[in-house]
Amino acid sequence: MPALLVNTVSVSPAASRLGSSRPATARRAASARHGHRCRAEASGSSWVSDYDLYELLGVERSSPQSEIKAAYRSLQKRCHPDVAGAAGGHDMAVVLNEVYALLSDPDARLAYDQEQARRSEFAGYTGRPLYSSWVGAESERRAVFVDEVRCVGCLKCALHASRTFAVESVYGRARAVAQWADDEDRIVDAINTCPVDCISMVERSDLAALEFLMSKQPRGRVRVSEGNAVGARAPNIFNEVAKFKKRFDEMKQKSAAREFQESEAARQSRTSAVHAIRSMSNWWYWRPFGFGPSAPVTIVLASRLLPPPPAAPADPVTERLQEAAAARRKTGGAATAHAGREDYWTPQLNLPSSASPPSIHQRGRGTPTPQGHGRRRGAAGEATVAGRKGISIDLTAPLLLGIVAAGFVSYNGEQVAGGGSGIQEHVGGAIALGVVNSFEMKVVLAGVTWSIIGAAIAGVIQVLGRREEDIWK
Where is the stretch described as Disordered (predicted)? Predict the structure, then answer.
């Protein structure tokens, strides 16, 4: 890598004599501009463009030069041939030197960041469709594509060709999930019934790029206005497909040219060295937890005094994942296709008539409860249960208090009951007057009154006790 950053230009004697007439300041400025351009081009055409150098060193993209230098020195000590071994240590040391030489040069670092920004456009693009599978004949050159930005969620395409189209559950928009899973007549009918003409027949070679570009488009929940308009029209991605594929092909050609210039052994040794450095540059090894990019350099230097971690044994979880992946390949991926259908809403074809609404039992069994209502109903049920628990009072003590009060009045007789005085007249007549003024009624009233008073006191004590428990929890 240092060789890439050196601007070596061979100048003939004639050219030197012709250029000697120019002022020295102009020659130095032109040489500096040419050197910066050569370093930028070298950094853009080097193998480092295929890797994230900041991740390799374990630093942020906005890290200052001092932090990059500290990370480089820390890794260089651990990757030294005397520490990591002569075989792998030499390759890792060479890679680290090239990475640090690029990131320590402001112009080369700027060119690298610009190249990575251009490459970020293709992050996640593999050249294969993202969410549609191919079910049709291999000789078929056409494919079905839905412009999800223009889709209004009318569900007509999913009703006409339910195996080809589905409605995704996040935004409620249609999507072609299986190419040519239905007959061509059904697919054509679904295209013709679309009210906004958002379904198109495209070239099969453009399908992967179209789906990738569509995944980058901002979308929201479908909401049709009064005039059946869905808002402002998004940029036409059909005009961007050719440009996108051209830029992707250029990037692939550059990568292929770089791979052609070096041997397979050199590429494999560099790849293994990069993987080894990435495993060592984990932040847990040289950056303390809880400190961001602005962590003091002293903390970073102190953390480097720790001994290197021992080699980790084989992860059993990884082995189980590999076994599961092998079993999945044997089954042919049928389970994956079935699981992917859970992300889509399936329209119900046997809808009930409006004249005969479903009964209460049918609603309880077949009608799905909306998610929001279910949450509110669950919260209300929990509140009801909590309320019932709150009013449940132990009546043992109040009943005992009422029995004691009634016994006390009965034992003391007329002294406590108020002697022979009572109500002189009653609306119910003499019988009602006798019942009210009877000694037994006074005993019962004393027991009931003190039972109510005891229940109220017990309820207050229970509420205060529960509040104290909630506070401690």
Answer: 311-383
